[in-house]
Sequence to fold (504 residues):
Amino acid sequence: MVDSKSLVPVAKRDALRRGVILSSVAGLAITVVVAAPLALKASIPTLVSKAAAAETTHSPDGFADLVARMKPAVISVRVKMANDDSEGLIQGDQFGLPQGTPFDWFLRQFDFPEMPRGPQVISSEGSGFFVSADGYAVTNYHIVDHAKSVEVTTNGGKPYKAKVVGTDSKTDLALIKVDGGNDFSFVKFAEKPPRIGDWVIAVGNPYGLSETVTAGILSARGRDIGASPYDDLLQVDAPMNKGNSGGPIFDVAGDVVGVNTAILSPSGGSIGIGFAIPAETVKTVVAELKDKGSVTRGWLGVQIRPVTPDVADSLGLKAAKGALVAQPQADSPAAKGGINAGDVITAVDGQPVKDAHELAMKIGTMPPGRSVKIDIWRNGNDQTLTLILGELPNNRMANANTEDHQTSGNVIAHLGLSVAPAKEVGGAGEEGVVVTDVDPNGRAADRGLEVGDVILDVDGKAVSSAGEIRSAVQEAQTAGKHGVLMRLKSSDQARFVAVPIAHA
Fold:
């Protein structure tokens, strides 16, 4: 899995200060022909010419005609977010920490700017594209998250107001609706997934430079960058920068094969490693968002841990595969179906489970209410349990016209954890929020947060609810920060933890 410190949503750059060294080794195979017959020698130039001609035939002549056809469907997406909180904003040394403390490294590494006090209107800009003539358009969740208003500008420079139809934070997708026309140029999704090595073209709005076109190839498929349990991303080397988020990746037929979501960027600029949500995922999510404004997913309800070689050996497993159940959640389908702590989930409906990420992917693509067979390894034996999937909690519909459209229960998807007010958890005290669940593939887990930890404050601001944590993270993102500093209480011991934030 890619180090999440270096992952940056391309709508709002998080320029982390660390180096990346890439190396490659090429081996050359040389065939030497000694005393070849004259006939063979004479044929060599002909063979070379044919090979060169074939290579020339398959080389692209340019994308001008293709781009001219695609560009009218691509839009810039501008959002405004009101920040009315004038209290507790960080000034000076940001956290009130004296210089020379162990936390100086955190402030230097993330290069936090000074935040002004008082009410503000914060703007951000990304990309998107029309998927229907009547104004439905796709963009990223992290672009319209916390939006008070949304405006799009078409290829011809005409602005339109838009509303958020629905969002899905887990795939970083959003569907918006532009009113004022029924003849918008639009594009369609590719019917077949691209192959590694295929040409791809990105059109977007980097740094506000509208209608920018870049090209490259599909570098890899199935990338898990740790942003979500449902990561299954395309990797492309077409240059992408701040503002490309939400924009389309096209194939040479002019069909959308992916939606830009993040880049690997140790320096803040493009290094040729970008990530896009594949079209097959986008089609499914967009259809649900258009139909009901949210996405429903199957839910098993287990806290899971990786099966390491040591764990596999201690449990008598032949291979370090599967998902180790740390604890089934109370009243969850897993608990009701008989799954216990210490079980290793090895297959779902007969399909092997490689790891926790694959388990989340398999369950998340199934509808709630479905009966599934779960193969487990327990006490040295294989067993099969049958249970009914529940609905993943806290799916939500977001609408820019609603008063509190950002409410999403106690789940903080960007950080990979769930919380509850401490005063509602017996023995946790009156201050802060208690961590009730941690995604083992999320940023919080990567920084050592565990179930039972109490988060007292975020970036120097006391928190008492999931909403206040989300607000603190949003303030950090809009200020250009790359992480937040949490003060935790664990077993009556206080500590500070720096947690990176990716979506902005």
Notes: The domain at 1-20+61-84+119-295+392-398 is CATH 2.40.10.120 (Thrombin, subunit H). The chain has three domains: 1-20+61-84+119-295+392-398, 298-391, 411-500.
